[in-house]
Write a structure and sequence with these properties.
Elements: H1 10-26, E1 64-69, E2 72-77, E3 102-104, E4 117-118, E5 126-128, E6 133-134, E7 168-170, E8 176-178, H2 183-188, E9 201-203, E10 208-211, E11 213-215, E12 225-227, E13 232-234, E14 258-260, E15 272-275, E16 284-289, E17 299-300, H3 345-348, H4 354-363, H5 367-374, H6 381-388, H7 392-399
Parallel strand pairs: 10-16
Antiparallel strand pairs: 1-2, 2-3, 4-17, 5-6, 5-9, 7-8, 9-10, 11-12, 13-14, 15-16
Helix pairs in contact: 4-5, 5-6
């Protein structure tokens, strides 16, 4: 073996070593200690969100304990929901629900900062009172560029993620978690839209989480109940187009398709407001889950506990084994091969569907205006009717359904 010795400038050697070491780590295959490569999604338009029916009662019981210890609210659970769930594994989510060892400790007296702290990757927004985390961020990105601006919205229907009717699915660790409104839990809590929402959970910063409705006067129920509306809307126009930018219309496929428009709704940028509630008659800041985006808030008004951050002292997880599945391309998932994307979807996304074009022509409005009014699938007919100045019944009749 012929070994050659090279002399180099110390700074240059260090630089080359760092770059080489980083590239080896970044390209390490799954199982070698490196992070598995991200899926390179190319879809740039929303689809129909197909929910897996809730049909399974898990044999393992739900275990959760919530108690105040000092200045912390200790929430310990096994991560097993008490309500019905969808079938897991399924063709959009090949993972089984397994027990977890959660120990969340948000503050009993949250510290209001007045600022916004964005929800980060690997961080749960909060935990439901049944011990199931609220994790709205999907680990799916355009072209597989992790933590880029173009993170897919889990409930847009663009990427099939095997979400059940509780708007939940399972992480590779076996952790069942909510991406949207937890209807199974709300049913257990006897949710009634004519009454103030029951307490649904606790955010990582310690503030309470409610769903959909609250007091009109923000003090008590003397003036009735109101459904709170998010202040986020779809952006106008088209996304930038480049190697790392998807192009296409802002339609809700990506989180970045939305923007906060002050005064357009009832809630602030973190989907919350200061109000009285049955649990806090003297008033508190509270987060609300909403029907429209973001559904689950994406930022904090207080100081989140690190126990909600899986990368910084958060709960420990037990990784479940990946089951063998082959659902075929018709189901959007095929083991061992690249994800089946909708053929030509990235070319067609700039073009509005034919039924939308026809409806816009009948209504005498622009196609973009109608698409923005309806929002991402499923269309918001009630909101669109108000914006367009017509009845919901008339709008539904004109828009109709796409021909298959």
């Amino acid at each position: 073996m012929n070994i050659k010795n090279y002399n180099c400038v110390p700074f240059l050697c260090l630089f080359v070593s760092l770059i080489f070491g980083y590239s080896v780590f970044a390209q390490a295959p799954k199982g070698s200690g490196g992070r598995p490569p991200a899926k390179k999604h190319k879809v740039i338009q929303s689809g129909t969100l197909k929910l897996v029916p809730n049909s399974i009662n898990l044999s393992r019981p739900n275990q959760v304990e919530i108690k105040i210890v000092g200045e912390r609210r200790n929430i310990v659970s096994n991560g097993i929901p008490s309500h019905e769930v969808g079938q897991f594994p399924n063709c959009g989510n090949p993972h089984q629900i397994s027990e977890q060892k959660y120990s969340f400790r948000p503050e009993v007296k949250p510290r209001w900062t007045g600022d916004r702290q964005r929800l980060r990757s690997g961080q749960s927004f909060g935990v439901a009172i049944n011990g199931i985390p609220f994790d709205p961020l999907a680990a799916e990105f355009f072209e597989g560029i992790r933590n880029s601006k173009w993170r897919y919205e889990a409930l847009s229907g663009a990427i099939e993620l095997g979400v059940d009717q509780n708007h939940a699915h399972v992480q590779p660790t076996g952790a069942y978690h909510y991406h949207g409104l937890p209807w199974g839990l709300l049913k257990e809590l006897a949710f009634d839209p004519k009454r103030h929402s029951p307490l649904v959970g606790w955010a990582a910063d310690g503030y309470p989480i409610y769903a959909l409705v609250g007091f009109i006067n923000k003090k008590n129920g003397q003036q009735g109940i109101q459904k709170w509306k998010s202040s986020y809307q779809l952006k106008n126009g088209e996304r930038p187009k480049s190697f790392s930018d998807p192009g296409g219309y802002y339609d809700g496929t990506f989180i970045a398709d939305y923007e906060y428009v002050a005064g357009s709704g009832d809630l602030d940028e973190c989907n919350g407001l200061k109000t009285g509630t049955p649990e806090f008659p003297g008033g508190t800041y509270a987060y609300f889950l909403t029907e429209t985006w973001p559904v689950i808030p994406r930022c904090f008004r207080g100081v989140p506990s690190v126990t909600f951050d899986k990368s910084r002292g958060g709960p420990s997880f037990k990784r479940s084994k990946r089951p063998k599945m082959d659902c075929g391309p018709s189901q959007g998932y095929k083991r061992g091969k690249k994800e089946h994307e909708k053929k030509g979807s990235h070319q067609r996304s700039r073009e509005a569907p034919p039924h939308i074009k026809r409806a816009a022509q009948k209504l005498g409005v622009g196609v973009d205006e109608l698409r923005r009014a309806l929002g991402p699938p499923p269309p918001d007919f009630e909101g669109a009717a108000k914006k367009l100045g017509m009845s919901v019944k008339k709008l539904r009749k004109i828009v109709g359904r796409p021909k298959r």
